[in-house]
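notes to self, project folder thing:

trying the whole complex as one job this time. last attempt i did each chain seperately and stitching them together was a nightmare. two parts in total, labels are on each line so i dont mix them up again. if this works i'll redo the older ones the same way
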Amino acid sequence: MHIPDGFLDTKTIVATSALSLLGVGRALSVLKTRMSSRKVPLMGLAAAFIFVAQMINFPVVGGTSGHFLGAVLVAVLLGPSEGILVMSVVLIVQCFLFADGGVLALGANIFNMGILAALGGYYLYRLAAVLIWSERGKFVAVAFAAWFSTVLAAVCCTGELAWSGTVAWSAGFPAMTGIHILIGIGEALITTLVLAAIYAARPDLVSIGMAPDAGGEARPLRGVLINGSLIIIGLVLFVLPFASHWPDGLEKIASVFGFNSKVLSRPLVSSPLSDYRVPGVGSLPRATALAGIIGAILVFGISFVLAKIVISKPKGRVP
Amino acid sequence: MHHDFLDRFARLDSPIHRLPAVLKMASALLLVLTVIITPLRIIYPFPAVALFLILIIALSRVPALFFLRRLLLFEPFVVVVAAASLLQPAGGMTCASIIIKSTLSLTTVLLMSNTTPFTEVLGVLRRIHVPPAFLTLLALMYRYIFVLIDEMQRMKRARLSRTFVTRGMRSWRSISMITGQLFLRSTERAERIFAAMSARGWK
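result (full assembly):
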C-alpha cells in the first residue's frame, strides 16, 4: 500500500501532506505535555520492531502476498498518539532507506497507514471493546479493528489515486478493496495472535493499552474530536466523492470489458430506457451502505468466532 | 551485525558521497518535485533528468546493477497501477506519465539514500528544526532495526534447529509467537536502554 512518487498529483500531495502534518504535529504535542521520558526508547524500539515485523509476508489467493502492517497492534499496545508517531517514523525510514513509498507521497502514506490505520483503528478498537466487556472481548475488538483499518487504509489509498486521476475509482476500488479484505484477515489474525502471545507472557504490557482510560490525553473528548475530524476530513476529501458515484463507475467498467449485458441481466431488457425505471437503481447508494453495514457485522461475527478458537490459552495460562 | 543490506553503499567514498548531505537532499527533493509537477507534454526535461541521474550514478561508484535490481523490485507494482490507468479515458498518456515519473523519482531517492548515511540525513533534519523528540525516535529506530533483525533471525534459527516446521493454522500461530516474543525482547531492551541513557544524564 506504499504509494510511490509519480502516482499522486499536486493537489493530492498538498492535501495529504497538510493532514499528516497536522496529525503528527498534534501527536507530538500531546506526548510532549505528558511525555514520560521512559516512553521514548520504547517507541523507538517499537518502530524498529514494526519495521522488522513488516517483513513477514503471508500469501493471499492468486499468487499475491500481503505483508503485516502492525498499525493497530502498536496503537493498542502503546496508545493512539504513540501509534501515529511510530508508524510515521517507520514510513519515513522505509522511504529514505528502501525508497519504499515516495518522498512527496509520504504525506499520503502517513495519512493512510499512520493516521487512518493506527488512530482510526484504535478508535474502532475502543468502540468495539465497549460492546463486549470481557477479557476475550478485547481480542475480538482488536481483530475487528485490525481488519477494518486495513480495508479503510486501502479504500482511502484508492480514493487518493482516483482524485489524482491515476486510476479510476471504478477500476481501483474493486481491486484494492478486494485484495485488502483478504489481507485484512491475515492482519487481524496476526495482530490478535501476537497480542495473545504478549498477553500470555507479560499481561502487564497489554493492560497498558487495554485499560479503559488509555486515551492518554488531558481532555480526552477534545482529543477524540480533533483526531476524529482529521480522519473525517480525509475521508470526505478522498473517498466520499467517489463512493457516491460507485454504481455509475461499475457500469462504465462493465461496458469497457463488454460484459454490460451480463451484469444487467434482468429478465428481458428490451429497451435501454426501461433500465432506468428499475426500482432498485434509485436506492443503490443506500443498498451499498446497507451492504457495508452487513459486511461489518459479518466481520465482527467472524472476529468473535476467531477469537474464541484462537484465544483460548492465555486465560488459562495467566496466573 | 550482518544486515547492511539496507543502505550498503551509503558509506562508500566518492565525489558524490563527499558532497554535503544538505545539498544532496535538497537537490533530490527539487528533482522529484520538478519531475512530478512537470506535465508529460513538456517532453524535454525528462531525458535531461534521466541523463543527469545516470551521470551521478556513474560518479557515485555505486554499482549500476544494484540500482537496476532495486528498480526491478518496485517496478511490477508501478506497471500494474499504470496498466489500471489505461482503463480511463486518455489513459495512454497517464500510463506513460506514471511509469516515467515513478521510475525517475525512485532512482533519485535510491541515489540519495545510497550516497548519504542516515546519520547525516538526521543532522540535516535537525538543522531544519524537526522536533528533537521525533529525531530521537528516528535515530533509535535506525540503530535498532539491525539489532532486531539479528534477534529475529536467531529465533528463527533456534526454531529450525529444533526441526520445528509447522503448517496451516499452526504456522500462523508460530509466526505470531516469534513476533510476540520479538516485541517482548524489544520492550525489555528498551527498558535497559532507558536505564543506560538515564545513567548518562539523558532527560
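what i see at first glance: Residues 208-215, 246-255, 257-283, 313-319 of chain A have pLDDT under 50 and may be disordered.
need to look closer tmrw
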